[in-house]
Design brief:
Elements lengths: L11 E7 L7 E2 L5 E2 L7 E2 L19 E5 L3 H10 L5 E4 L8 E8 L4 E5 L2 H4 L7 E6 L12 E3 L4 H4 L5 E3 L2 E6 L1 E3 L18 E2 L5 H7 L9 E8 L5 E14 L10 E8 L4 E5 L5 H4 L4
Parallel strand pairs: 12-18, 13-15
Antiparallel strand pairs: 1-5, 1-9, 2-3, 4-5, 5-8, 6-7, 6-9, 7-8, 10-17, 11-12, 14-17, 15-16, 16-17
Length: 284
């Protein structure tokens, strides 16, 4: 097991509510104006583990989308919530239902949460959700050059990471070339939000198998850094999780929330058949 400082981390309550869906006409990269479902709400038929491409929607968020209406409080909600954290519904007919944080979406500043299907049927817009935030500040004691962010220690230990000759071998479903990265580039912080894999070059996506990306996939972004924000950096790597669907808008596509990053070859992505949070946490 990787040695960490998890015994020193602070577990803190942060809270939001189920967000109402937002939708407006979008001018898309092919010149077509589209009106389609997108961010917000309770998505009943799209969940972690499903394909991120192919939906008649744009920036579709699987499961439950949540946000705090107070901007300052939402900053804490989005920043401090970590992938793998436990969430509990505290109001409405689904009170007591437990879920798992599966993503953070920038721009709209949503926290995305997976709940069992039966619980989704009891929920409504504005139901209150509390998350036990736990993970920001996580360090790998033997790998000071690897930065960890937005990752619950419990999930870290289930990701199949192997220490080999001073390098962390991380199983990933896909390795994404840096030229595919769009929205989120240059953000001042990678501890919140996400980084989009652009969807415009469809032939190249298919050639690399990136059109098979699924919600919840653990992926590597080559020659990219999440130190001090997001940037192109030769030799660096980002390990992240796919949180929302593809998009028809220029510079946008499946979003990736950063989990690990390294500048000096201390992380080696290993492509495997399945590397998905639905498998690691048995999310049905």
């Amino acid at each position: 097991m990787l040695r960490t400082n998890e015994d020193k981390l602070v577990m803190l309550s942060v809270a939001g509510e189920i967000s109402a869906p937002a939708s407006q006409p979008r001018i898309c990269y092919d010149g077509v104006v589209r009106v389609s479902p997108g961010t917000g709400g309770i998505t009943y038929n799209v969940k972690v583990g499903d394909p991120a491409f192919g939906w008649a929607g744009d920036h579709v968020e699987p499961g439950v989308s949540s946000k705090n209406k107070d901007e300052k409080a939402n900053s804490g909600y989005n920043t401090l919530s970590c992938i793998g954290n436990t969430a509990v519904v505290w109001s409405g007919d689904a009170k007591g239902a437990k879920g798992i944080v599966t993503g953070k979406h920038g721009g709209i500043e949503h926290v995305l949460i997976h709940f069992p299907k039966d619980d989704l049927e009891k929920m409504k817009i504005s139901d209150q959700i509390q998350v036990k935030s736990f993970g920001q500040g996580l360090d790998l004691l033997d790998y000071p050059d690897v930065k960890v962010m937005s990752l619950d220690p419990g999930l870290l230990h289930k990701m199949g990471i192997v220490e080999k000759e001073g390098v962390l071998e991380v199983p990933v479903a896909h390795i994404v070339p840096p030229e595919f990265m769009g929205s989120g580039l240059g953000a001042s912080s990678a501890e919140r939000g996400d980084y989009d894999i652009t969807s415009m070059e469809t032939d190249r996506l298919r050639e690399l198998g990136l059109d098979k990306i699924r919600f919840g996939d653990i992926v590597a972004i080559a020659d990219s850094s999440s130190f001090y924000g997001r940037s192109y950096r030769k030799g660096a790597v980002i390990i992240g999780i796919v949180v929302h669907s593809n998009s028809f808008v220029s510079g946008h596509g499946p979003g990736v929330t950063s989990l690990l990053t390294a500048l000096n070859n201390k992380i080696r992505p290993i492509k495997v058949e399945k590397a998905n949070i639905a498998e690691y946490l048995d999310l049905a």
